Each structure stands twice: as structure tokens, then as C-alpha cells.
Amino acid sequence: MASRTFIFEQPLNERIRIFLRIEALVYRLNFFTQQNNDHASYQALLTVLELTALLERGDIKQETIKELERQQKVLKALISHQSVDKSRLELTLSKIKHALSNMHTMDGKLGEHLKKIDFLLAVKQRASIPGGSCDFDLPQLRFWLNLPFESRIADIKRWAAPYYLLYDVIELVLKLIRDSAFAENVTAVNGFFQQSLDTTLANQMLRIELDCNSQIYPEISAGKHRYSIRFLQPQQSIDQLPGQIKQDIHFKLFLCAL
Q: Is the pTM of this model over 0.85?
């Protein structure tokens, strides 16, 4: 029976960092929208607001289009290579073309559709205050949470609709990046590993695979020219500071550079 593994990921540029955050928030949103209770619906609502705040920080739509066009250019250059599976490549290029079409049909800036909804603005304002969303603070929120589950979920999906469209595209982008790397078996001597990055490559992400029973985790520091990995081991209590492993650690490293 094959052992289970954990994957730890480290983005190597700001664009991928934002994409991974959007992916994580949508995963959370999907989890809470499947739970039929008012606490989960409230957490789903907060996640929609968190996504909105993240997407307000920059033109994520334009950044996504740029990344799709970059990947499209890189993959088109591979068509003439004899070792390439042309049918698979053409299918991938078709998916990118479809994703680009979807992105160009999105009107306006992401998150603008929620700025005129007073209910969401009130929740956002009170959510920043510890305990500020109690029933006596936001009776409208309590009213909404008392609505049937189907009604609450319909509202959340309506509010999050543009984010789901963006998420579908980002998932395609991240899948291509993750699939671009081959596993390299490496050793962290005394729990430490460092390597230079080839700046001529489009370095996007590091992925570290560890056995789930290893009881250690990596602390990754990455810059434009090099990265380092320090493996830490928790103490008996999570309240205590972890310590660096003082033995050699064998692990799989994926350098994604599509």
C-alpha cells in the first residue's frame, strides 16, 4: 500500500501568490456552503467578503489574462517538437483559448457588483470588530441566517458568481504550472537545503512532498535568485517553538517553471 504524502507549496512571484490565495479561499467557501447550519453560512459570507477584499488590491482579471497569454505562447512553441503529444497539447491550448474568452467577457472590476449591497457593507464593517456581528449588532444578519438553507446558499452563490468564474480559470493556470515539473529526489543536509534559481526560466512555484508520517514540515524562504528550505519539527506541544531538524532529510522537490 502506497504511503500518503503531504505537499507544501511556495509561490515564487506575486501573481502566483494571489492565485493560490484565491484558490484557498474558494476551497473554504465550497466547504462552508455544503454545511446546513447558520454558523457555516456566516463563515461562507465572510469568505465572500474576504475574496472581495483580496481582489480589490489589484487588477486580478488583467493579471490572469496575462498569465493565460504567456502560457499560451509557451505551449504554442512546443507544437513543432517531435516528442510532444500533439493531441494533448492541442486540447490544452483549446482550454486556454476558452478560458481567455471567458475572462474577456467579464465586465467591470471584480467585486464592484457587491459595493452597492448595504447588507454586505454592514457585515463587512461589523466583522472587523471582535464580536461585532452579534444578533443585537446586526439584526438583519440574524434574519438572513434564519432563512431556509437553500435561500442562503442561493444568495452566496449569486454574490460569488464572478469569483467562481475566475477560480475556474485560475485552477487551469495552476494545474498547468503544477504539472510542468518532474519530481527530483534531494537531501536536506542537517535539515537544511539551498539552491540557486535559473533566472532565465519562468520560475513559478516550489512544491515539496513529504511522507505524512514524517512529523516535520518545511519553512521556505524564496527570492528571485535562490531559495532555502529549513525543516522544522514541532515540540511536544504546539504552544512551543519548533526546532530545526539536525539530521539529513530526504524529500521530493518539484520546481515548477512553465
A: yes
